Amino acid sequence: MPAVIFGTMTTTLPRPRTELSADEARRIVLRSQGFLGAPDRRAGVRGILRRLGAVQLDTISVLARSHELVPYARLGAVGRRTVDTAYWTEGHAFEYWSHAACILPIEEWPHFAFRRRAYRRRPQWAHDLPEGAYDTVIGQLRERGPLTATEMGGAKNGGPWWDWSASKVAVERALMNGEVVCTERRGWKRVYDLAERAVPAELLHDELDDAECLRRLVRLAGQALGVGTRADIADYHRLKGEQFDAVVAESGLVPVRVQGWEKPAWADPEALASAPLGRHRTTLLSPFDSLIWERARTERIFGFTHRLEAYVPKPKRVHGYFAMPLLAGGKLLGRVDPAREGTTLVAKQVSLEGPKAVAPMARALREAAEWVGCDTVRVDRVTHPDLAGPLQGALS
User: Quick one: what percent of the chain has pLDDT higher than 70?
Assistant: First the structure.
């Protein structure tokens, strides 16, 4: 066992664990994701982004957009304008395809070279592109600076949302290839700039081979998750299983066994070095939060079945359009489908796992309401009628 010597004092480092109970694994996951222990408030939103490695973007906005909900869930009522400023100013981040469309720390630009190369090898991408359209948008960006697709001539041809204009197709292809970068969202529109301007010179290169890129992303995913199976870790940045297999032995992650998990797992060795202790966060989670991205993993860790129903036909929804799980005491204890009506936060449907979830749900609803500028919380429906009264009492 290794030792560290300071003067005459010798400190023995703990040997990494190779077997974890299901509860230990759950707590490791919560700490790694930023929900257990005091958050580093000095690092703020940028610290959360670097800790997670990726924050998913989505068009849906109920309480707020998902990329705002992610730091809120970990840090509390950080200002919404502060969130966007922290992501986009001074070149701290860029948007690219990771788990989905995600905000990524700018220092990870070199490690997505494998994906940019893969896009470049495709003979065509999604739409046909008129001759000269690609060079035209590159020229516009070079001459005029950062632009939206609208500012380059329009994003659509006038048909359905997928009926993109030639300039939109061209700039998106340039984004995939890495010649163009999305440097921010303005009114939810992507703002594009040339990579040579937006990415620091020391990061701009695509010199890392695929294996080095994949090793880094597997290691980052393992650190963000704490512990996970092959599917868990590969899914974090949407890698293929065989890509994970090719690099995991050299990624620095440690093979572990988790009681109750049928498949092998790997863990971040730093996550195994100390017991996961600290204060639990009570909060509502975006359905796009990386803690609950993957349905099978959420069920395995928390015994909680979660499904985003925004894309499910309304008559078939069980929990609601944008049902947000309630995290409290390190467990998922219910969910709420929220809406806003003026200064009222409306809980259209509340599902609770039992009486112990009442007080945490009331607290989470009050905090969320205050964060988005609402002064009232109205509960329309509680799926367990006997808990409706206690919830109303806890809210008032």
Answer: 92
- Percent residues over pLDDT 90 in the chain: 81
Per-residue pLDDT, 9: 43
* φ, ψ of residue 218 in degrees (nearest 5): -65, -40
Cα separation values, 284 from 80, 136, 160, Å: 16, 45, 34
Short-list 376, 367, 380, CA closest to 342: 376
More confident residue, 240 or 127: 240
CB hemisphere CA count around 8 (13 angstroms): 0
Query: Using CA atoms, how far apart are residues 381 and 351, in angstroms rounded to an integer?
Result: 9
- What is the pTM (predicted TM-score) of this model? 0.91
pLDDT of res. 5 = 40
C-alpha span between 198 and 218 (Å, rounded)? 26
**Cα separation, 69 vs 288, whole angstroms:** 9
Stated as kind and residue range, the H or E segment containing 192 is strand 189-194
Please check whether residue 165 is in contact with residue 153, taking contact to mean a CB–CB distance below 8 angstroms.
yes
| Burial tier of 262 (Cβ tally within 10 Å: 0-12, 13-18, 19+) | exposed
